[in-house]
Amino acid sequence: MPETLKETTADKTEAVAAPVAAAPVGKPRSLWSDAWHDLRRSPLFVVSAVLIFFLLVMAIFPGLFTGADPRYADLAHHYLQKPKWGNVFQEDWFGYDIQGRSIYARVVYGARASITVAVVVTALVTVLGTLVGMLAGYFGGWIDTILSRITDIFFGVPFILGAMVVLTSFEERKIWVVILALAFLGWTQIARVARGSVLTIKQADYVMAAKALGASTTRILLRHILPNAIAPVIVVATIALGGYISAEATLSFLGIGLAEPTVSWGVDISSGQEQLRNAAFVLIIPSVMVSITVLAFIMLGDAVRNALDPKLR
Question: Is the C-alpha dihedral spanning 193, 196, 199, 204 positive or negative?
Fold first, then answer.
């Protein structure tokens, strides 16, 4: 046998005998890690996250943006003075209102009340709506019937009209009163979403296995159903947060939401409507801030929905 043929045969024998190295298998990503992987690459998420971060910093630390007092009024010198767009971040940047107060200072400090109302209301309606939806979807039967009918009753009440009725029953409409009024009527949509998600998940194999192994109802709800049903709830809550900012501004504009001396964008929009013809900037500037904030949260909700919904990938 020629030497070349012997070497070729030996090489083939060694190649067959040599163990095949196993290809490295990466750790599978969970739903949340996969969603975060997509969110980091989404321009919609990046832009909205930057805007929201800026607004949250402004709401928590308004002193970083202005040293002016939003309640200080100087009618003699600052009555409806027009904005000086070149004086960026200065007291007279956005001009002054009818009481001689700095509009820029009020925009900065007004973020705290508006965002606080929206965040706390969203937290309350998310907890309440998720609880009602989970109980109705998991237990079914008469529990589902009662909770669903209660949800339908609240859902049938017009949101703004119902909030107006609730708020008019209070003499002083402070922040916590507005929060409770909005939360009292705003949980129904999340309850419906949570119920529908739980109805699907409770038929899953891992839930059936947990029941067969004797897991308690509380453990099944908290360890198996809630983590898998919370994704659509988070999407709805994120989008709704911007709606609550708009609702607070609407109620304050109508004169039944927050009121003086609370510094809020809605209060400033309400007080600025009388100067629409001769000093439109008093009304337009806080209105633009409300629009930007609502848009930022809606964009964030859309980005989160795209990342968590496998049908949209």
Answer: negative
